[in-house]
Amino acid sequence: MTNHAGGVEGLPREKVEQFDRELAEIVKRYPPDRKASAMIPALRLGQTLFGYVSPAVQALAADRLGTSPSRAEEVATFYVMLETHEFGRHLVEVCTNVSCSLTGGDRLWAYLKAKLQLAKAGTTADGKFTLREAECLGSCGTSPAILVDEEMHEQLTPQKVDKILGGLT
Amino acid sequence: MSETLILSARWGKPGGAALESYRADGGYAALDKALGMEPSAVVDEVKKSNLRGRGGAGFATGLKWTFLPKDIRPRYLTVNADESEPGTFKDRYIIEHDPHMLIEGIALTCYALDIHLAYIYIRGEFAKQARVLEQAIAEAVAAGIIGPKLLGKKDFDLQIHVHRGAGAYICGEESALLESLEGKKGYPRLKPPFPAVVGLWAKPTIINNVETIANVPWIVKHGGDAFAALGVGKSGGTRLFGVSGHVNRPGVYEKPVAYNLKKLIMEDAGGVLGGRKLKAVIPGGSSAPVLAAHEIDISMEFDAVKAAGSMSGSGGVIVFDESACMVRALARLSRFYAEESCGQCTPCREGTNWMEGMLERIEAGHAVAADVARLEQVANSIAGNTICALGDAAAMPVQSFLKKFRPEFLAHAELRRCPCGDTGWGLTQEPRDAVAGPMRYAR
Q1: What is the ipTM of this complex?
Q2: Is the domain B326-423 a CATH 3.40.50.11540 member?
């Protein structure tokens, strides 16, 4: 699937080149013979550049880190922040664990489902938002909390959520 | 006498995370002092301090350090910043408000233990905190505090890197953390061998929690005895207690390690929301067995909470008022453990899913009394039968909720519905900032 000229089947060449440039910086954090340690950051980088961690992205990361595609796949499918399927332009994750729900997190989850017209976790028809529940975000003293595109928002009310989502395109 | 603040003294200070500000307040003086000491003398101070691990297990830090084999190099340090235990939210404030205290602690630990490469493993959801750390490390390198020399004068190569996880509670377990840092899925390893002997890339590795390491500069500066004197018995220092749930002033409170739990909730955290009655407290993160309201007049010191049948764990205190449904709360916690079980051991992989399903049925009114007994059997079958502590962590809430609040579970079975209805998460459903004000820090 990969070739060492830098191209990978199905992935745009200029983005693969960008991937290689940025990955070269990331792997400096690990000893030269331990490049495979960079698998999580490599797949995250792939998700940022290519939209999600497709099999082609997994193969690219595995190739560049000198390991097998199955190693990349096991990592891509193990961690919840690595997406192996396409998702909405914005990812909204609502903490409904205990400390948040004791102070309104569960209600915020219900509010967001209604607002985005989703019966359960999923992606809106226009592809703009993917909504799902999150596990404890470490924001228990500033609950309820959500992540929007991996950035944390805390001490939320429906009004504050409206404002945050309203600012997204 | 004013209370000693070791960890949170500089929190909230404008620009306090910057190197310049940290140095103006005496930062890196402990490292300077240590460079005039033998490395083994630094270890001795940490042993004397009675510092115990703040991640949850409460293991003696100095003792852990002595487990490193004498003659194997390289050795590594990994700092556990995977803070993911529900109810735990303390390490992030150290990172956000005083990252250089952590970096100085890392530099001291590495100097003491002859370690030249350290990783901070931070949970993926802490994107902002990871940026703060990267910035602080870059500042320290640019200033020559770390790098080829320590403080620009001592030949001692030290590299510190941030490694972000990607969403997996199990990676807070130290051997799963190492697997993850090696670029794999987070499957805990069989122990022994312990990481201090066979750790990262099969080399001896010390793994300490953020809060644990952040104490080291103070210990070096003021001496291990002074730190020990703040605690009792074999537990020294202060701790960060995070109080959340149904309290008037949720927040992180730095208190002596043996502080009274009832006082923490009723005085520091302002008591129960809305003046309602206290029902239950989880004292040390979601895995810690729950305490009933009448059981909380205890010291939070590790051994004291253990004697009371629970654990002070990560210091994450979750408070439930009388309006909370304990079945609903436990069902949600059990879902968490089912979600986060890595799937390696059958009792945990299968059992956590069974518990989640059974609790959802009990909460929905689809269960009978015999199901409550069966739930307890499943929990008992997981505990002690797995490679890592996640199995126990999933079982302990179930066992303790059933022990302390069994009538609520039976009432669900008998009525065939949740008696609490819409108010199952408690009567407090107003926006947080309207009822509780902003988060407090340890003041």
Answers
A1: 0.95
A2: no
